Amino acid sequence: MKMYLTMAWRNIWRNRKRTWITASSIGFAVFFACVMQSMQLGSYERMIDNSVRFFTGHLSIHQEAYWGEKILDNSYDRDQLAGLPMDPDQVMLSVPRISSFALASSGRQTKGVMVNGINPQDEAAMSGLDEKVVDGVYELEDGALIAAGLAEYLKIGVGDTLVLVSQGYHGVNAVGQYPVKGLVAFPVPELNQSAVYLSLSVAQRFYGAEGLITSYSLLLNSPGQMAAAQQSIEAALDGSELSVMNWREMMPELVQGIELDYYGGLIMIGILYMIIGFGIFGTFLMMTKERTYEFGILTAIGMKKPRVQLMVSLEIFFLTFLGVILGLMASAPIITYFYLNPIRITGDAAKAFENFGYEAIIPFSIDPMVFYYQGVVIFILALMLGIYPILYVKRLQTIKALKE
Amino acid sequence: MKRILLLLLGMLVALMAISQPTATEIIEAADQRMQGESNRGTMKMSIVRPKWTRDITMKSWAKGTDYSLVLITAPARDKGTGFLKREKELWNWQPTIDRVIKLPPSMMMQSWMGSDFTNDDLVRQSSIVNDFEHTLEKDTTMMGYDVWKIVLIPKPQAAVVWGKIEAYISKEKYFQLIFKYYDEDQYMVNTLNFSEIRMMGDREIPTRMEMIPAENPEQKTVVVYEDFEFDVELSDQFFSLQNLKRLR
Amino acid sequence: MIFSLAWRNVWRSRKRSLVVIGAMIVGVWSLIFIISFYNSFYVGFSNNGVQYEYSHLQIHHPDYLTDPNINWRVQDLDQVSARLERMESVAASSYRQKIPGMIASAKTSAGVEIYGVDTEQEAATTLLSTLVVDGAYFEGITRNPILVSRKIANKLKLKIRSKVVLTFQDLDQEITAASFRVAGIFESKSPRINEGVVYVRQSDSERLIGGNGIHEVAILLDDAEDMDEVKHALVGVTPSTVRTYRDIAPEFSLMEQSSATTQRTLTVIIMLALLFGIVNTMLMAVLERTREIGMLRSIGMHRGKVFRMILVETLTLGAIAGPVGLALGYITVQWLGERGLDLSRYSEALQEYGYDAIFYPEIENLTYFGLMITVLITAFVGSIYPAIKAIRINPLEALRKL
Fold first, then answer.
1. Are C324 and C348 in contact (CB under 8 A)?
2. If contacts are CB pairs under 8 Å, which of residues 234-263 in chain A contact chain B?
3. How many CB pairs under 8 A join A and C?
4. Is A217 helix (H, G, I), strand (E, B) or coil?
5. Which of A14, A286, B216, C123 has the most CB atoms within 10 Å of its CB?
6. Which spans in C183-226 are helix H?
7. Are B161 and C174 a contacting pair at CB < 8 A?
8. Closest residue of A to B81, CA-based?
């Protein structure tokens, strides 16, 4: 066996040009597949990240009845969360919120709004709310931040007074007036017409819900830790009236949308494999053809065909391995570069994206699965195509080959 | 002798026919007993939920079907809050922010002060007389009273969500005893029970009302009249926004 | 001379050429498939939006846009309708009253927008009558009929003939309520309409808010190309705001642009992969023919000619593969375009985003042309490096090799 290994290894390096061409065609296959999948996953990651940061967190803890009926009476005492296992290696941010409906009024105009009691620092870190301020300042204290569209409807601006009326916890009368500290603009019209932010303590006082929150959202360091974190929290909450949900449970339509797109993406990657496959096959074809004479000689001097085949298989294995490693080595830094410095979209497309609150970039993913999965798939693909040379050797007629 | 007897019998039958009021008259009389031309009183409302209970005390004034005014006196957090109903509009006075807010249509079906009553119930409480066709269904007994069971079916044009209301009203003194609210598929939605009949002002009325939603029988809202006067002198001016702000 | 030489060279190594041609064919064919599929997504999305929700153009009072209050009525309505009637490109139009309000059953209540519509106009403009899945389009109920969505019907537990109460403010700011009976239940393609729009007859809504006046004019055109022209014509007639569906809903341009971006990115990736296959194979071909090229050079062939020979050889491959790929793509698109691609397995998610479950791939004729050019450019670029290698071959050394 050792002899075949040595022979195969030597054969590879005998014709360096050919080897590099073959290996690089495999390497490029890995590279293209990685880039494509990275872009696909990158766009999902962005979508998920946006939604998770803005709406639910990766995980969210609420009172069991809350998800079915989002009313203030289904809020809970934040102290109940004391002693919860919050592994700092997993949980990046934890954000308490109290949210409910209210009637916002300014003189003649009255409108139903969504009041969110938040902790401004946490919220800025989680959803980047501070970057959405278009007028005034990002500070709450005893004031309010309101959505720009809502401000326009109510005909109020920074410095004016916002009146809120609602029903608080257990139906208490909830009223308050708050100076508008800043306006925040949201691309989603629904949000832009109805969002009001108060500081957590002010909102709790407004709703007569001191110490209570409706949700406690957790942002994890990496989505991969979600299952483990959910399990440990679930175990800790067992027996209480609280439950923890992950974003997949909370946003099923997003999951379905991504799934649909993912299958579309698989078709495209499949097509890419085909084209790549042709390329790799082409180089194998050439390699075999070039070496017909050589194979002829080997069989003529008495080497058994299965042994030639073994040797060729080993060569193909080496080549493929070399190619895959080459491809991964090329794609990892390039994809990481684009992950850190994303490609900017310009022109009309950029405007369309920005109108919708997306940054006008093509996001990449550096999920290790991308490299692992594509490396393995191309490796297998190349090995499968490598059957051709082996079959070729089998069918080889020594006399004919020597005539080449 | 026989002829006299027959005549007497005939007169009796005629008399009975006269003395038997129509269903509409019964509903009207019962409503009149509870409302008077006008009224004034204090009451306590208890919102009962499986895990908690909240009590609210209030003063109320009403005149006819168009005007009413409610002022919350306790708990401290809500004290001074007022509601004014003028015809079909509902205004809310919030002393802590010194403002009157007109409740928009979108708020009408929301619960009033967290209770099992809606804002809409407040605004349209008297429509049982005008918005329904009334039929006397049967005589029965209940809580020690001989009662009429009357079925109220909304008039075709009426803006009423109920499919039907069953009202049980005592024959003696026209006490409202039970109201059952049904949807159009004849499923019961709410039950309103009246009890504790006592003297209030110049008349006896049920002083305790219990609203129980059929879907959540473990929760209810109880209103107890603590003191009540009828046919008091109240001007239309009393039911104005200015007065709403002034009342203590 | 070069052409026949190239042509012969192509077929001398049949397998190799077929592999490159095959890769190109798959590349072109799959690009056509993907582009047409993306188009069907976008076209389906915007068709649904135009057909069932926005129409091509809408007119509102300028203040209505920030404050949807029933007092903001479309100005100079008579002139608008007169102008619309004279325009041939207008297929249909619907004049609506839109009243924010509340719908309530004994079960519960929900906030809705009440559309007071002329039933015939609405049917012609938004195909509303075709969306009724239960009951009938404003038929079967004589007094105050109403159409509600399946979603609202479920929430309020409504059936055909169920009674609902609508509460809203009339033109004098008075709160008004009226009872309606469900004549039909519809399922719109638009999530927004399913969520919170109910339809009543305009004669009823006029009576209830105590006046006429239109809050929204929706205009459907025969051809979307005339959109800007019609918009310009109307702007001169009324001070009200005239907007196209693209102005109204930014998601259309987002969809269009992101679909275009994806198509472009995919084209680039596939062409790069193809390019690499071409470079590799041609490079191999050049290496294989080192001796032959050396011979040609030594018998006096110019470097330029050798360069051109390799170039033409590669372009020939593209010229063979391109049309075949295009033809296959064309057949696929025609076939799928007629049959439709059924994705009803995902209909729930699709509906959430306002899609039908069946997609009809389509493609512009120009795209075929563009792809042909792209393939030739790719072949051209792919041939440069091998061609350079070929002219660098030293004739003497090459001959000495054997």
1. no
2. none
3. 132
4. strand
5. A286
6. 191-196, 202-209
7. no
8. A173
Read off the pLDDT band of A108 (50, 70, 90).
Answer: low
Q: Do B99 and A170 count as a contact with CB atoms less than 8 A apart?
A: no
Using only the alpha carbons of chain C, give its radius of gyration. 31
Average pLDDT over all residues of chain A? 86
> Which residues in chain B are contacts of A103 at CB distance < 8 A?
101, 104, 107
Convert the pLDDT of each residue in C19-38 to its tens digit.
Answer: 888 888 988 998 898 888 88
Across the A:B interface, residue pairs with CB atoms under 8 Å apart total 51
Separation between Cα atoms, residue C33 and residue A10, nearest integer Å: 44
Average pLDDT over residues A97-124: 87
Alpha carbons B224 and B198: distance in angstroms, whole number: 11
Which residue type is seen at A200? Answer: L
Query: How much of chain C, in percent, has pLDDT values that exceed 70?
Result: 97
Please report, in angstroms and rounded to a whole number, the separation of the first and last CA atoms in chain B.
Answer: 71
Chains that touch A (3 or more CB pairs under 8 A): B, C
Question: What is the distance between the alpha carbons of residues C48 and B105, in angstroms, rounded to a whole number?
Answer: 32
| CB proximity under 8 Å: A 20-79 to B | 73
Q: Which two tokens stand for residue C153?
A: 């019907």
Instruction: Fill in the amino acid letter for B114.
Output: G
**Which of B94, B107, B113 has its CB closest to that of A171?**
B113
Four-CA torsion C60, C64, C68, C71, nearest 10 degrees: -100
Of the candidates A323, A266, A373, A276, the one whose C-alpha atom is nearest the C-alpha of residue C271 is A276
Distance from CA of C142 to the nearest CA of A (A): 34
Highest mean pLDDT out of A34-38, A321-325, B142-146: A321-325
Can you state the percent helix, strand and coil of chain C, rounding each to 5?
Answer: 60, 20, 20
Q: Which bin fits A62, alpha (ψ -120 to 50), beta or left (φ > 0)?
A: beta
Q: Which two tokens stand for residue C402?
A: 């054997």
Q: Which SS3 state, helix, strand or coil, does residue B186 take? A: coil
Taking only the tens place, the pLDDT of each residue in B177-218 is 999 999 888 888 889 999 999 998 889 999 999 999 888 888
Cβ contact C273–A276 (<8 Å): yes
Rounded Cα distance, A177 and C387, in Å = 78
